Fold each of these.
Amino acid sequence: MSTVTVRAARPSVAGRLSGWLFSPVPAGRVAAFRTLAYLFVPLDLLRLTPWVARHGDVPGDLYRPLFLGRLLHLPVPTEALVQGVWVALLATSLAAATGRAPRLLGTAVAVLYAEWMFVAMSYGKVDHDRFGYMVALFALATAGPARHGEATLTERGGWALRVTQMAAMATYFLAAFAKLRYGGPGWMNSATLTWAVIRRGTDFGDWLMDIPGALVAMQWFIVVFELSSPLIFLLPERVRRALIVSFFGFHVGVFAAVRIAFFPHLVALAAFLPLERLRPITGLRRVATRVAGHRPAAQPEPATTS
């Protein structure tokens, strides 16, 4: 009697890509990242970009809307519009950080923050460090309910974190592309960092400038690092997380040298990390709940495996 060996069909390229994009993660990780992302909004409004509110007093003929602003026919910012967006965004972000009505409040935060950025960046200055963070806000609105400490795996949450990760790495890659497009290969040997240190440097930056060739070497490192950043997805998970931690260290070094911070981008980078293990995130969520005027819901014990 003959036997027949049945081989399992190999998944198609589309199937493997779908499995990668929707790779499930613990719901607690999504909840922690959501709390971090939404609590960044009040910090941004009150501390990092309060100058955006002054655009409501700027003459309308100075308004040069970005491409999407033109496509959507967004109105010229006025004092009433800017103040209304500010109040609504502050209120909805605090409410969204509690985890309640994740789709409704998440969508509201994403749309309001996008408008805040249109107002901010339509007067000649566009910050590239907010791309990954904006993608995170829109993606989180699709992630659905998730509770802190919840071990249940979620594909929707995995997709939200994955596209945020992709946007964060695209920020690096496209930054290098812009350097080479507008500065050419000569950018690596230019005096760009030297000029930045002279203009807004620190004691650490001055020390680096005194080392022959140090700033030029840093420029070569930056371009190579940014161009190769998408390769991080090919690395094992443990190595990937270690590299992400080193990325945070890189940004600390940049801030120490030239006082340039990329806070929204750092929030997006946190999508790579196992945030469900960080108990302080839960504390932040409870603070947001109290500020929003709600009592925190009872949290279930994390599931355990035998």
Amino acid sequence: MFKAPCLKVPKVLGEEAIILTRRLALFNRELKVQLLDDALYIPLVSEPTSAHIKEIKRALPEFEILAHDFPEQIKRPPGLIDMLADKLPPHLLASLPRSIDFIGEIAVVEVPPELESYKKVLGEAIMATHKRTNTVLAKLGAVKGDFRLREFEVLAGEGKTETIHKEHGCTYHLDIAKVYFSPRLANEHNRVASQVKEGETVIDMFAGVGPFSILIAKKHVNVKVYAIDMNPDAITYLKRNIEANRVQGKVTPILGDAKEIVEERLKGKADRVIMNLPEKAIEYVDAACEAIKPKGGIIHYYEFSNSPNPMETAKSRFIEATEKAGRNVKEVLSVRIVREAAPFTWQIAVDVEIQ
């Protein structure tokens, strides 16, 4: 226990009193606030000056300044709120981003409009609380275009967009300004890769830098993966990642549009097809059906849905498109929400066996 000066207030004034002591730079972060008999004891770093007392009297209708024994605060690495508590107005702390994407040594954050004037401060705080990060980028708008790219603004650090990301034992070289990559799909990459069986031929229609394709090849001894993408930069990094992960001979990178590639050279070759292009996958269901072997196979289909029943809607749309392509659904293996892509919009995964 440590004896220290403190501000004693009724419990109902606790939040207001803590904010006030922080603003006055009196709050002692080393000691733990205590609640005893409906009174809050707030540890202070020093005795309040007469100027401090005037400020406290102006803000709090009831208080006492006294000495009190406090337990030492359990030390933990400072979080984002801790770093920004004295740099942002208190009401804006609730607007801090709830999630940050870490891609290699790069942190990517979405800055709420109300924090726009504090974005550089936010970037520096993220750097300070995540020591392995050397660049903080802010998203500027949504993913767009055929290559699913977005623009970024540098908030702190080196300002680079190229990095090396590690996931499930695989290494991915990539440039997030030139290729699409989402660390939020890590579990989905592993889920699909774990379902692949030895001896299968897999077609990854929208492979990017290879998070599905390479993990499949790493997990299995005897597989053949055709990894297609129409973004030349993605294929460049994919080739690099094939070498970095030593899966040469298992993964074949192919530059081009998946429809054309399937039509020209991959008809009826696949035991399994991965369709991770949620914005446009529905337009490629006919090509996926052509790629599946005549005896049948598995398709992993993804789409964004904002309907009241997103999973049922995605499943129905896929089944209808499959039937139009001249194939039948033998069994719907699973339908699941992968993630929330935007408010009231979800990425849905539909796993289906085609006959």
